[in-house]
Write a structure and sequence with these properties.
With 99 residues, this protein is of the alpha+beta class. It has 1 helix and 3 strands, in the order E-E-E-H. It has one helix at 44-88; strands spanning 3-8, 14-18, 37-40. The chain has a 3-stranded antiparallel β-sheet with strand order 2-1-3, with no helix packed on it. A hairpin with a 5-residue loop joins strand 1 (3-8) and strand 2. The protein is rod-shaped. The structure holds zinc ion. Zinc ion binds next to loops. The site of zinc ion has 9 residues, from loops.
């Protein structure tokens, strides 16, 4: 049975509830008795933590991406220049010139 996190929009009360997936969504807040409950997906608190974690890894991955891009560009230009030199190396016009 999955655990659902509920949050009350009226009083901000949050709690976990074991529920079957087929169970109806709870509406009434046990704290303020208002029907202002919202069911959060998965474990709500964990998602919040994960969210801020995502930002952190995002920042890190951006600088990492930049570095990777630089490396990629360097590798690409290297590849390009070596491509060029190998292309212009054996020229077509010099094949019959010794005759
Ligand atoms: Zn409430």
């Amino acid at each position: 049975m999955p655990t659902y996190d509920y949050e009350c929009d009226a009083c901000g009360h949050t709690f976990e509830l074991f529920q079957a997936m087929s169970d109806p969504v709870k509406r009434k807040c046990p704290e303020c008795k208002k029907s202002k409950l919202r069911r959060l997906f998965g474990t709500g608190a964990a998602i919040v933590f994960k969210g801020s974690g995502f930002y952190q890894t995002d920042y890190r991955s951006e600088s990492y991406k930049k570095g990777a891009e630089k490396a990629k560009k360097a590798a690409e230009s290297k590849k390009k220049s070596s491509d060029k030199s190998s292309k212009s190396g054996p020229g077509e016009s010099s094949s019959n010139k010794s005759d």
